[in-house]
């Protein structure tokens, strides 16, 4: 194996580790052992050398003076920020002796891991950690904060995270970005769409906010939050009524189309218009455009499913391509996520068999605040890694109150002193992905990639894999799975006979090629992993699970008597809360803003640029207002998960609900309501 680390200078291949569908190939330019430039790798077949600005500026983060260098223990009160350097031996000894005692007195379920995908490497994000916590018998975390609702909804229709090959979308003639801010969150899909546009394609964006993606559209369709399901049903109504459906496709590859045809009669354009705020003529225009354009492609985003009805909304939109037979056309169909194509051998990587008690309790991460405060028997220790719940989790005040508990033994493993780490008893320094070995599988394009260490580990920092090895040793777990090398873990993961798409992809071929495309084929003709093997427009499984078996519009839940629906979306230059602590990225983004319709602003006597108080019964924030026509009346939108700079109140998740969505226990960040007033 080549050892990039030992070479002080040169240009080395790498992967973007961030939770972003594009999963770009990178080239790291090294001088004197340090990364001096992060560039796109022109050899990557999809991302082709282009990367976003935030990762171009990644070196500011990787070599930041503020990175954690050593393990530390808390010497002040929680959230005071006073810590003292300790050795790794002391850190591991403190943690494991605490846990051994907890296991004796309260049982292993008193301990909870809390993590998400701060680094998408599979060994880092869901490898050695899973083995460790299974063996420990800790409470299990249901990792629902991102796409759980939409994934569950899409699966009812299509059987899994299966869409089209994004490389085919250059052939599309109609591209609908639906609830996705792709310019910021999937820039290479935008590049492919621009190519399609040169060949005559139209780009439509359906969103609650005319942001940079909306501004790029040939046609921007604003609608009220949480009403997309109704819009899709209105389209179906017109597609059937005006005979724009592909009966042969429906016959051959779907079940339930007769029931659906009758069912959507109720969603006439007038009714749908009154729900969505989209004018009747625009609903006709959209349905006819979709019904008559071939190939038509829908990129289904994450934003539209962060609602009470997010599962059903995604389920409903995912039925559309079947109605017009788009799945058979190159460049037609949809992508919600493509992760099922690259599914690896999770059982062997994560070893769920090591968990003895099959009834171990499961805690939904969206409810972490409430659970820390109310659960009985209580969570007595939490180990946070690759996530920053104090900023990113809903009901933020409850989360921070839970973290503040004096009797909660909190360990945080991160690269930085995050808002969460300030509450820790023990802080452990993490390596960046460029210091580790790992493999990466995109959930949008079809390539698997490998990361080999390019730079030395920063001071005493350690990778997640290494820390869990040490913890296993400290706990006295002598199972050989904790001894496996990264190379062995990658080989184990890719050895997965039940996924033929991975044929020929293994550790050695990855080392040799850096990027390998899965052996994907078009979904049709073919059999889907749904119960019927077909696209399920009518789903008996949904009925069994307590949902309407047909796509149905269900309004979001009334969040209280506050005038505005509040959509606190991500921003362009951060990745969730990552980069919110880097001066460069903050200055690129300038400041957090609240977007408000000018009629609403007039009514509230609020002027552009003023600071406003945004509040509900969960708490309050203060942001500057941008007044204009980029959001509909009754809706306010903020962008970015900012941390509280001194004297500011900009933790937007203070205001968001921890209700669970209709499916998958998903998050409902965008279904909350607020009041807004000038200060
Ligand atoms: N620059 C950047 N890139 C990112 C991230 C980031 O923070 N910054 N985060 C990464 C992660 S973890 C994820 S999950 C993805 C998310 O990326 P996306 O899939 O783009 O999802 P969001 O950005 O959450 O929301 C997308 C859009 O949904 C809109 N929206 C909100 N509610 C509704 C609704 O009811 N209907 C419709 N039609 N639109 C609605 C919002 O206004 C927003 O423009 O991006 C990833 N990439
Ligand atoms: N209001 C609102 N809230 C949201 C969202 C929204 O749109 N609006 N989006 C939600 C979504 S979709 C998501 S996915 C979540 C994401 O929320 P998080 O998973 O918390 O993501 P980040 O904020 O990026 O935090 C990741 C942390 O992991 C650390 N990290 C990176 N690499 C490593 C590593 O190798 N090891 C360790 N130990 N740590 C590492 C980073 O330094 C960073 O502090 O946020 C959710 N919260
Ligand atoms: S964040 Fe997304 S667009 Fe930016 S470099 Fe990483 S994968 Fe590419
Ligand atoms: Mo996410």
From TrEMBL:
Its cofactor is Mo-bis(molybdopterin guanine dinucleotide). InterPro entries: Asp_de-COase-like_dom_sf, MoPterin_dinucl-bd_dom, Mopterin_OxRdtase, Mopterin_OxRdtase_4Fe-4S_dom, Mopterin_OxRdtase_prok_CS, Prok_Mopterin_Oxidored. PROSITE patterns: 4FE4S_MOW_BIS_MGD, MOLYBDOPTERIN_PROK_2. Residues 9-66 form the 4Fe-4S Mo/W bis-MGD-type domain. Pfam families: Molybdop_Fe4S4, Molybdopterin, Molydop_binding. The keyword Iron applies. Keywords: Iron, Iron-sulfur, Metal-binding, Molybdenum, Oxidoreductase. CDD domains: MopB_3. Belongs to the prokaryotic molybdopterin-containing oxidoreductase family. This is Molybdopterin-dependent oxidoreductase. It comes from Cytobacillus mangrovibacter.
